[in-house]
Amino acid sequence: MPLTVRPRRKRSTRIAITLLSGLLPILLGSVILYMQAERTLEQSARHTADEALRQFELMLDNTAQAARDLLPLAGETCEEVKLALREQVTRRPFVRSTNLVWDNNLYCSSLFGDFKEAVNEGDYHEGKLWLMNGNPVTPNTALLVYRLSDGRGGALTTLDGYHLSNILRLIGRETLLLLQVGNNWLSADGQVHQGPLPPLPVAQSMLVSPDHAFSVSAGFPKGETWRYMADEYPPLFSLLIFFGAVSGAIGHVVQKRSTSPSHEMLRALEAGEFIPYFQPVVYGDSKKWSGAEVLMRWNHPKEGLVRPDLFIPFAEHSGLIVPMTRALMQQTAALLGPQSAVFAQPFRISINITASHCRDLELVEDCREFLAAFIPGSISLVLELTERELIEPTDITLQLFEQLHALGVMIAIDDFGTGHSSLGYLRKFNVDFLKIDQSFVAMIGIDALSRHILDTIIELSAKLDLGIVAEGVETQEQADYLTAHHVNFLQGYLFGKPMPAAEFLRALSHD
């Protein structure tokens, strides 16, 4: 089978990925900070609008009270009530003037005494408030007029626009704050504008008074979010740039490492650096050696022995696992083949396979060559199905297992009980052995739930007439428990660690 190796990325692609790795945390961090700034500005606008609404309502409550006090006097002569009108102006801090109305005519004013001016109810929003841009006495100066009527009589009280704009300026110091009454609205510069309220570009918040006919809008000008970030977040931006630089450096290093391992592993395969280690498997009853599991190790010329979890997954992903397994089988046959004459009974040799081995029938030929190196009947070859990749029950897979069984090769499910497909393999494939994962063995005498799962697996194997191997046996207590439950084979540090070929052969000759 040809080796499939990922092509090395072009230099421009590597540079682009490095830049992207560096920019991504900066961009994501900036987005998060932007969203946080928006939330902060929204809270600020809401708080400002709420405070302004509260202040305006206090002023209008005071003004409305003045109108309520004066309304019973409507209809009396101006000479009789003008002192009462002026008294309200004196007592109420925000009231600029008071007026009485009869039959929609303003006839008495705290400013002028007797007065005559028609009152148009349509000028007042909801018949209550009129935000006007001054009067003949104070032109171009905002006034807020409060109207209260009862039958033919009525009372008008006015608020000086200075107080209104002062609130807009002081409370809205950091925001844009607007007061709206009907179709008129007041800005912080004291000017009254007609027409729809202009939208506030950032974090607009509008609150409507529940008691009086006005609303308050608060917000910020365009670009305020970025200005806020520039003022408040410089340390965080510095931190983002630092993380971006670190991420870019990591991306650069990872790319160098991700493009070179395939070449390095191919070199190691050609140099024969992938070597077999052997871990003994013993009979459950006699504890004598029944065989061994063949484990792959990488004897790197510089790094020494490389742990399998650091290279096996990449070998599977890159397509190198098949030729690496083939080389492992060839080395194992060369080492153990000459010893097969001394095997008193078939010696079980277990080798791991993955989904990559099940995509064609070449594994059958590899096993045939492996068995040919031994005296017929001296060994039993067991292939252990690992679950790092799911093995699909295709026509090729089913044909492969059928031909392997015809050769006398047995199939085991590795780490049974932990993978998502273990039970599916039992249903779809004709297997011979189950290997209990060491995580269940380790819980013997410690965790009742794991022990129950272990007992269930043992019971299942008995009902299906399958052999069972327990791996990871490290204590005598575990060995005794498994033996008492009639587990066929045991494997673990209690009986021997994975060992190089020379050490294994010496131990085998003395077994």
Which percent range fits the helix content?
40-55%
SS elements, strand count: 21
Strand order across the largest sheet = 12-13-15-16-17-18-19-20
Unreliable spans: 1-8
Describe the structure.
The strands form three sheets. Strands 12-13-15-16-17-18-19-20 form an eight-stranded mixed β-barrel, surrounded by five helices. Helices cover 44% and strands 25% of the residues. The chain has 14 helices and 21 strands. It has 511 residues and is an alpha+beta fold. The chain folds into two domains: 33-225, PAS domain (Beta-Lactamase, 2-Layer Sandwich), CATH 3.30.450.20; 280-292 and 321-510, TIM Barrel, CATH 3.20.20.450. The longest helix is centred in the N-terminal third of the chain and has 60 residues, at 11-70. The model is unreliable at 1-8 (pLDDT under 50). β19, α13 (476-484) and β20 form a beta-alpha-beta unit.
Features:
single chain, 511 residues, alpha+beta, Beta-Lactamase, TIM Barrel, 2 domains, eight-stranded mixed β-barrel, six-stranded antiparallel sheet, 14 helices, 21 strands, 25% strand, rod-shaped, disordered N terminus
